[in-house]
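Appendix C: a fully annotated inverse folding record. The material below is reproduced so that readers can follow the format used throughout the book. The structure is listed first as tokens, followed by the designed sequence.
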């Protein structure tokens, strides 16, 4: 983790061609494996924050205007190797960081990210990529203010995914050749992903939320953590504003007595001259 300009922090080298000044907004990321319910929770959280009066921007994996169609086409052809997989996602994320996330943070918005660089870390590592290399590739990523990790186990996840929408090629990790059976490949792949997320949770300090609970209970826990974060940031902002104003207030207090003394001195001198005039005559 590297300090950036004006206190911003990155997971590596940052974006050298993008000027980062005071980021007044808040970056909240929601992570978890496929089918865990991230998008549902992001949508509920966005609605709640807007009711509270916050401006909210939502962004998600492969939503870059520059790269979304390219990634979709590559996935449809089932022809991405692990290097292509990583670099396409890195390009997508860099485009969204520069054009969506950073401008929103400069403007004071709450940015909700449905997946963040941790998704790339987990997917690349389980496919055999070097962990240090993949983290270097995403070294331009800002450190979020809060990462919420929806934690679930593979046995609970499988029936949930089957009921919701079924299993696709990439969610099953079929490119890894874990087996010819889609269901069994899904179980093995998701188990590996969840293991990586659990490791990263300890390393990066994720706030873990039990995703086996009902959606409304999950949302209630998420809101409590987000509210505490935003209240803390609000108090920090007020404290910073007071520190900025304090020198000006002291300057104003010092100026007022000097003006009063001048006025008082002038009042004393005038009567003295009037009193001496008769004796001179």
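Designed amino acids, in order:
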């Amino acid at each position: 983790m590297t300090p950036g300009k004006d206190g911003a922090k990155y997971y590596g080298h940052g974006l050298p061609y993008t000027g980062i000044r005071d980021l007044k907004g808040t970056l909240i990321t929601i992570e978890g494996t496929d089918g865990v319910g991230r998008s549902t929770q992001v949508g509920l959280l966005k609605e709640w924050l807007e009711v509270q009066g916050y401006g909210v921007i939502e962004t998600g994996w492969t939503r870059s205007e520059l790269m979304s169609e390219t990634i979709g086409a590559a996935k449809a052809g089932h022809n991405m190797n692990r290097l292509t997989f990583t670099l396409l996602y890195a390009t997508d994320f860099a485009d969204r960081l520069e054009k969506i996330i950073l401008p929103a943070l400069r403007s004071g918005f709450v940015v909700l990210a449905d997946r963040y660089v941790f998704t790339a870390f987990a997917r690349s590592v389980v496919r055999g990529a070097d962990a240090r290399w993949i983290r270097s590739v995403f070294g331009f990523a800002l450190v979020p203010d809060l990462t919420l990790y929806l934690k679930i186990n593979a046995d609970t996840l499988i029936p949930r995914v089957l009921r919701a929408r079924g299993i696709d090629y990439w969610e099953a990790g079929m490119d890894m050749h874990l087996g010819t059976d889609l269901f069994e490949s899904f179980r093995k792949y998701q188990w590996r992903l969840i293991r990586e997320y659990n490791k990263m949770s300890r390393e990066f300090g994720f706030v873990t939320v039990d995703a086996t609970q009902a959606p409304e209970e999950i949302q209630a826990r998420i809101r409590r953590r987000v509210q505490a974060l935003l209240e803390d940031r609000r108090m920090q902002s007020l404290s910073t504003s007071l520190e900025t104003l304090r020198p000006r207030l002291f300057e104003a207090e010092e100026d007022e007595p000097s003006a009063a003394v001048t006025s008082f001195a002038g009042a004393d001198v005038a009567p003295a001259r009037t009193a001496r005039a008769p004796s001179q005559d």
